[in-house]
Amino acid sequence: MKTIQSQLILSFSIAILVPAIITSYVGMKIISDQIITRAETKAIADLNSAREIYRTRLSEIYSITRLTAVRSLIKKAVSTRDRVFLNAELAQTLRREELDILTIVDTHGTVLSRGTNPGLFGDNLLDDSFIDQVIKRRQPLTGTDIVPRDRLLKETPPLAERAIMDVISTPKAQPRKEPSETSGMMLKSAVPLFDDNDNFLGVLLGGILLNRNFDIVDKINEVVHEGQVYEGKEIGTATIFQGDLRISTNVRNQDGSRALGTLVSDEVNNVVLKEGKRWVGEAFVVNATYLAAYEPIRDPMNHIIGILYVGVLKQPFDDVLQKSLMTFLGIAFLGILIIISVSIVLARRISMPLKKLDRIARNISQGDYRHEFIARGPMEIEHLAGSLDEMAKQLEAEKRELEQWGSTLEKKVSERADEMKKIHAQLFRSEKLASLGKLAAGVAHEINNPLTGILTNSSLLLEDLEADDPRREDVEVMVKETMRCREIVKRLLDFARQTKPHKRMANINALIDNIVLLVRNQTSFHNVTLKKSSAEVLPDVLIDPDQIQQVFINIILNAAEAMIRGGSLAILTGLTPDSQSVVVSFADTGPGIAETLREKIFDPFYTTKEHGTGLGLSISYGIIEQHGGTISVDSTVGKGSTFTIQLPVTSTEGPGENP
Asked: Measured between alpha carbons, how far apart are the two ends of the chain, in Å?
């Protein structure tokens, strides 16, 4: 016969073990999915950073080529076909700027001078798409190109030898018919040459061969992954593929050498090279598993010619997952043991009084009314009969109270969930801003010092030149372009530093009045009607007026630029219903923002403008966040967009802020 105690222990055990097993499985699944999702998100962010480093290198080649092309002495030598001077200047520029080719052709594509091979000239390069396009359009062209072996041999035989790659058979890769690759993948920039009368003289072509050139992949590893190592392996890797062939990589073989000549997997080949899509996922690369991201590299004609890859070593994530799971299982097992122990104690506490009550009932049924009836035991058992009615009433009252409490708890849980979602979104954006801020600071630091030297020396040179000196115009170009570069660097540094606000009490209406007077006469507002509706009484707020003015101007100018064919911009100010925040909204009648783009507009470096930097709204978001406020956008395609900013009326100054 089963006892009450054994049945209670069995029931408690089943009730505990089944939820514990289900919870353990669900918990492990959630932890695993979260870790993999975060790792893949990091791989995508790393790929975006790698792309910017790749584009920056292309921009550097274009800058070198363009600045060389505008030199008066170069233009004069091209006009007079002074090959001796051109050969010397191109060779010197090649060495100084570490380029692999620097070639000048005339208006018919005939080579005038080669910096790498001055003895070879007179051949025609019209079959080079870059030179052909620049001669036809007379506009600069920069991008990535595949250069055949015969062209590399004309530049210099060592360059052609560097391009040769023996194909290494790779598991899970499509087999290649050719045992080796002889062509090269090159970053190229071609710019037109004009004399002082804007007569077209020819084309200057500069480039860097990527085959066995590890500057870009090592720079990606240094900036994105900071050279981190895990158990003797680099955590991050980067690769440039020519087609499906690794030509530049920091992926290592077992012997520590770079895995040049290996091939990309068949799956990645089909998605990236054939379909032209990004591929993100878990991949086995040479000798280790990585959470990898691949995207196609295209030439200026939009043909897919290669792949850019970054990967994060999966082993650290697996180890973290294993430790987390072991900890989770340990805690669950310990919890089960504790709960079972408690259930045994509780079962005994319940069963013992019932046994006594059973014995008393037996005694009563047998007519035994002795003192056993009042034997020692829990008061609940002694007063059981007389307390049933009272207990029923109490249970009914407690039930109503619990239902009311449960309803309130559900509401609070829902509110807390919404708060957690907002906090998670803010943390994710802050992590991305910090990562990209670090990249921006690194890039700005790398170019700021040489820019300062160039600006200082060119300015001094300009002061020393006479007004009629023929070189003065070239030096003025140098100073102007360097100043423009320095402004770009300043914007990058402003984004990276997130300057602390210098707060003081100011009136938002007065600030907007000054801004309207400042922008209303600009060209972009000729077809835009400004409408202003301000609250009559608006309290002063503790802000940095310069930073808040920067945010308002940025939003106003963005709205004006969006309304190319004219429209209206309404600026409204007021208070929230609780009077705790000042609300400023900017409503335009522009084309609106698609829902798919709305989540990206505050991301750094994201822009739809041809010459935009993508930093304006990111910096604005950071400024409003530092002021304890919020910025949001509501938009309907074809009707317009409304940016809404809320700033608290009272603000507690944080560390480093000045009132």
From this structure: 81
